[in-house]
User: What shape does this take?
Amino acid sequence: MAGEAILDLSDLINLATGGNGGTPEQINLYKSGLQNGAALGGTPVAGRLHSMWRWDGCPAAAGQTAPTTAAVPTNATDGSLKQSTPGSGKKKRLLGMVMTGLVAGSVILYDRLGHQGGLSGTTTTAQTTNLPTSALTRYTSGVGVEAWAEIYAIVGTTGTTVKLSSYTDDAGNTGQASQLVTFGATNAREQDRILPITLATGDKGVRAVASVQVTATTGTAGNFGVTLAYPLVVLPIPVPGVGALFSSFLLPGGPRDLGTNSDAALATAWFANGTTAPQLFGSVYFLEK
Assistant: This one.
């Protein structure tokens, strides 16, 4: 059977050490918040979420341009960890993660299910996203899938709000409207900023986003888009220079299955404790069954 369940701790240890075709894989990860290709990275702000999708590092994403049309990233897309595709009849599973950095904060490992950019901070009518262009390929029910407004080029200094003006929720209801979130002005306008969008009451996730709307102009068009993300790990780094570890050994069902197709576009985001740009080092570990 494809993607068989991990039976018990003994089975897990056997797979993690290369037995029974477990094919352990280690991806070394480095991300620098100091540079985004030829441009400087956005300055972190305490208590805010920052995208590391285009940050320089390893695997490389140097100089990566912002998406323009709706796209579905995979493990072959620049900016992702680029873990190998599992063998025939197997699924890729997340075994663990260890990270450290030069400043305190939290690393979020997530599956980037879809993204789109090219939206304007000065347009106040609904802007079409068509995200994704077809149904989700991973976490297809939409449960737990989050929608983020992601800023690629700085928008204006006038504070306003933004919402998903039409999205499909986890129950398949179309035409849903999200709640308004702060957009523009200090701390909600800068490059690399992620603004999580609060869904309508009762919704558990997003299957698709048809359009997004800015309430009033920010004064500068900039460039932003909507990202659909499925968070997998939130790993706090409370002390600079000291490693933090996540292990899936004790999770119900064992290591997390990365999705039906196991082609997850695994990416990282940074939840800052302060204004110093992070430099993050670590490894992510996988196995197959």
In short: The chain has a mean pLDDT of 89. The CA atoms of residues 30 and 51 lie 14 Å apart.
